[in-house]
Amino acid sequence: MKKLLAGLLAGVMVLGVTGCEKSPSPDESGTEGTISSSIISGRYLHDVYTDKSCYDPGGRAVLISQVYNPGVEPLEAQVRYTVKHLGQVMDTLEKTVTIDVADTEEVRMVWTAPEEDFTGYSVEVQVLQGEELLDYEMTAVDVSSDWNVFPRYGYLTKFGRRSYEETQELLTELSKYHINGLFYYDHIDRHDKPLAGTPDDPAESWTNLANQEVYKSTIDDLIRVGHQLNMKSFSYNLIFGAYPDYESLGIQTEWGMFKDRTHTEFDFHPLPTTWKASQIYLMDPANKGWQDYYIQAYKDFLSVFDFDGIQVDSLGAREYPIYDYNGNELQLDLRYSELLDRMTKELDTKIIFNAVSEYGQEDVASKVDLDIMFAEVWPWSHKSYNSLKDAVDNSRRLLGNDRGVVLPAYMDYDIKSSGEEFNLPGVLYTNAVIIASGGQHLELGDNGMLSSEYYPGTTLKMSRDLVKATRNYYTFMTAYENVLRGGGLEEVTTRTYVNDEFCSLTGAQGEIWSFTKVKSEKNLEVLHLINLQDVENLEWVDRNGTQTAPQVMTNVKVKQYVQKPAASVLVASPDYQQGMMQEVPFTAGSDDKGDYIEFEIPHLEYWTMSVIQYA
């Protein structure tokens, strides 16, 4: 991570439930809280979720809703779960419940997933009394035998002593966002010796780099509970870091990288003087001695802990020439792949590599069997929304569409006042761009929402509205994963008009931004409309939290030039009606520019997606 461990910003997160386009309950005042499900999304439905983050093909998904009776007499109502794939009904489950005044009933039903792998489903939940719809909500089911096609990565920073039940509660809350991968930040003893103790006698506790207490039992519990929820666990470490007393471990100076040809000035990364190490010396990742040492250190570590893989970090490009011990100048971006490739084979584990600002990404992607593409983006290399999309597009190009793309991108980076909130419009625009482009934004974890590269920081908070909107976006990303990312999606250039105005192809300020993808094997086309008409600027980082919210557009006329004749048009938005997909009528025509269809979308706020099924 660039400026590794240098910042002190992140977020105190209030994990809650979705809720949009519905009247708030009287309890919903917008106050802050801790990680819980205390935020009420609707008058009758307090929460809707599944018992795991994802499921194996043919697996049993438990669909759960918390139904509340706000009335003055007992409530008899029907709770209906409708499971759909891109608008097509797959199953309907229904149960009648009777709930006393001011009581909550947990309604659980089991849905057996189809055998088709890597498929997303929406689950629409309704509370009905006869023909009257009292409340509605949506969650999603991801049926995937591995996490790496549709990753939804979260982070963990707290490894102090806690009970197994507390760990279950924490990860259950993250699973409501369908998080299926966990990034364990600074949980190791040392970067150059991750395992505290020995494989035969591992330590029960130790302190991490920042001198925070870590317990083996807590890490074991997190991995175990994560696996029960179908979450993968990844151990984070720097690829080339050694502490000042490295020689006591058998690490040799000759393996290092230097700022001069005479190896008198060791390259290092500075850290706070109060930490376990005040600086980290940088070793040459292509040096065979360092490679052998590093791999053995992780063999020892993985013999004790049941991690699914290693999250390997770098520091991006150095700002000066670097040399090996013998005075040879090094091209660092080409020196990561050999060690990473050895790790995948000799450790028999999954590897994720953070190519900071994409430095080294191309070489690594061409030579290493990466589990997903992970690239920390920074505004000096990717400033605008369009450039953020380029980062996703480039990652997909390098690794292929059968592996997912995750971007750590830190919001509201320059807000330093403790207790302030994240700016909702900025976060939603960034998430809309990343998800519509085919990626996922690493942002959620046990410590809130990230605003800097130092994940344990706790400065910025999430408002209730942001909590709800984020939950909606993650459900949307999961339910419609097959038209958002994965194999077969290819971008095409076409003409799109909104209310008779030609849409921007590059995300211009003051315009509607459109881009279109086709999925030939499924005979469909996916149109994304992102509303940039009212943005203050186009900088995704929203440094000072000043990005402005869009004016909501309704009954929006769309004219889309299509590749083939259309059979149907489906529209959905995470900003509208909980993300539920609906079919809309269309008309077809042609002119000197080609064949087109015209239809209306009911709502365009930040982002609306249209799925056009070809005839």
Question: Which terms would index this structure?
Answer:
five-stranded parallel β-sheet; disordered N terminus; six-stranded antiparallel β-sheet; 32% strand; alpha+beta; 35 strands; single chain; 615 residues
Structure report:
The chain has 615 residues and is an alpha+beta fold. The protein has a 6-stranded antiparallel β-sheet with strand order 25-28-29-35-31-32. Helix 4 packs parallel to helix 5. The longest helix is centred in the last third of the chain and has 16 residues, at 464-479. Residues 1-40 have low confidence and may be disordered.
Strand content is 25-35%
Task: Count the beta strands.
Answer: 35
Mean residue pLDDT:
92
Beginning-to-end CA distance, first to last residue: 48 Å
Could you give the topology of this structure?
Elements: E1 11-12, E2 45-50, E3 60-68, E4 75-85, E5 88-99, E6 104-112, E7 119-129, E8 132-143, E9 153-156, H1 164-175, E10 181-184, E11 205-207, E12 213-215, H2 216-228, E13 232-238, E14 241-242, E15 268-270, E16 279-282, H3 288-302, E17 309-313, H4 337-346, E18 350-353, H5 361-367, E19 373-374, H6 385-399, E20 405-408, H7 424-437, E21 440-442, E22 444-445, E23 448-449, E24 460-461, H8 464-479, H9 481-484, E25 489-492, E26 496-498, E27 501-502, E28 512-519, E29 524-531, E30 553-561, E31 566-572, E32 582-584, E33 586-591, E34 594-604, E35 607-614
Parallel strand pairs: 1-24, 9-10, 10-13, 13-17, 17-18, 19-20, 20-21
Antiparallel strand pairs: 2-3, 3-6, 4-5, 4-7, 7-8, 11-12, 14-16, 15-16, 22-23, 25-28, 26-27, 26-30, 28-29, 29-35, 30-34, 31-32, 31-35, 33-34
Helix pairs in contact: 1-2, 4-5, 6-7, 7-8
